[in-house]
Amino acid sequence: MFYSILFPTREQHEKPRLEREPDYFKDLNLDQVFNAILTEEKAFGKKEKNSFGLEGFFYTPLDDPEIVVYRQEVLRELEDDSLRGQIAFFAMSLNMIEAAMAYVHDSLTSLQKWRDNYLTRGQLLDCVEKYCQAVIQFSSFLSGTGLKSAGLRGFAEYLKSYVESAPFNEMLGRAKKLREELSKVEFCMLIKFGSIRVRRYEGQEDLVKGLLNTFSKFKQDEERSFNVYLPEYAQDIKMEANLLNMVAAYYTDVFSDLYSFAGKYFYFEDETIVRFTNEIHFYLSWLKYIAPLKQTGLPFCYPSICGCEDPACLYSREGFDLALAARSLDSRHEIVTNDFELNYPERIIVVTGANQGGKTTFARAFGQMHHLAAIGLSVPGRAASLYLCDNIMTHFEREENIDTLNGKLQDDLMRLHDLLQRATSRSIFIVNEIFVSTTLTDALVLGGHMMDAIASLGTPSVVVTFLDELALHGPETVSMMSIVSDDGLATRTFKIIRKPPDGLAYAMYLAGKHGLTYKQLKSRLGKEQ
To answer: Quick one: pLDDT band at residue 453, thresholds 50, 70, 90?
Structure first.
């Protein structure tokens, strides 16, 4: 039995989810990515959180490869423009009906008695008719699409069964019959001196038809519509409600049927269908977010997932920092892609090289890919095999906290200790430029202890450092370097390749710290001249 488009079973869906973004989102710039996805444009350019309640699904890594594959199959199928367009239209239609029903429910449960009226019950009837029509049409469309993913195929089968069910057809039949009865209601209004009187229609002449016939002789061009939208105010709605109450006195049977219909179908929407129309935006919003990136030629793929037990090979081809790529759309800056590969027992990538050479960007991309893979989405890159992690432990530079009276080194060590205490065998570590506030000797000693602790976990990790010695720590360690061009200016290429450390990273760090790099010297000497 289908339950959710995001989980194969109800039990999986009902597991607790994170209610706030994980701590590592800010370090990896994933907060920028998902804030853009979870907000929608409102009037006057104002942006607000959308109402689909998807935050927990984007925040919470999955613990079962089966769920990851379930989502990947759905997302892959939704890349078809025609199918995605039809599903998006259906979801939008039911979301609008859901919003209208929220108003109806509020009105019929309001303490203001005038809002508990036949007008509001008529709006409920409208919603029922639109809902039934949308569900029937969408079910008919899905039945001829030959769906492949378990999620969409399961929903199509559920929808077909729902449309053929006795309760649905009873509701549809009653709605049609009631609409037919209401269409026969006719009445007259006498408007005079600010008062309105209602009486039964008794064959009086339709003055509107006569007026149109009189002016039809002057018609020359094709008809033009002069209809304009006139917003309804509370006093207008109240007047309409009172008018309907007067009309109902002449058609007691019809309006009694409307009253009982609204009572029976006060909550007419099927919970599973409503859940689908909300949760499908998990996929639609993601595809909308990456669409402009794909148009520039940047690749996305569906990674294979390595399990917890002795994963063999982790790799990514042409991966990139998603947040950086999204920010670069307007500037049209070229995005540099990078590869990595880890063959067991290799588990830790140590990245060294020139400052401002793309090391931190590489580390962020590594973390981003693993979180996206862990929630079942496509990831930046041409191809990938990634680790199904439960958490990503990030240690990026922080400003010194003067309230604690601790030094920067002590703060770094305390944060690192806390991360190691919370880590599990499925956690990923990303450490960026740690121990820069102490001497080289102390940094090497502390760095060695850190590498031992991370290696003991046996999980994929990235360590960005100026300490070349850490890249030679053991068989679990792989050395990668940010490469500069050989033009004599050490121009950054932002390429990170697998290469032994060359001993220049710490020298460049010290030169920069003391203003002795080529660029700094050239700038200073130029000013002196």
So the answer is: very high
Task: Please name every residue paired with 301 in a beta bridge, in sequence order, or none if there are none.
Answer: 379
One-letter amino acid for residue 73 of the chain: E
- pLDDT, position 310: 52
Q: Is the pLDDT of residue 67 over 80?
A: yes
Asked if the model's pLDDT at residue 311 lies above 60, the reply is no
Top CATH class, 296-528: alpha beta
| Choice among 45-59, 60-74, 79-93 with the minimum mean pLDDT | 45-59
- pLDDT for the residue numbered 488: 57
Overall size of the chain counted in residues? 529
**CA distances (Å), origin 90, targets 280, 281, 490:** 10, 11, 55
Distance separating alpha carbons of residues 214 and 224, to the nearest angstrom: 18
* In the predicted structure, residue 356 carries a pLDDT above the cut 70: yes
Task: Give the predicted TM-score (pTM) of the model.
Answer: 0.87
pLDDT number for residue 429: 95
Complete DSSP assignment for 147-174: --SHHHHHHHHHHHHHHTSHHHHHHHHH
Transcribe 480-513 into DSSP letters.
EEEEE-SSSS--EEEEEEE----S-HHHHHHHHH
Helices 271-279 and 81-108, packing angle to 10 deg:
120
Spans of all domains in the chain: 1-17+60-196+237-290, 296-528
Q: Which of 469, 93, 508, 20 is nearest to 277 (CA)?
A: 93
Spatial neighbors of 459 by CB under 8 A, at least 6 apart, are 347, 387, 389, 423, 425, 426, 427, 428, 429
E strand or H helix at 182 = helix 166-183
Q: What is the DSSP letter of 272?
A: H
- Tell me which residue has tokens 């294979």: 304
Cα→Cα distances 462→277, 387, 395, 424, 426, Å: 39, 13, 11, 16, 14
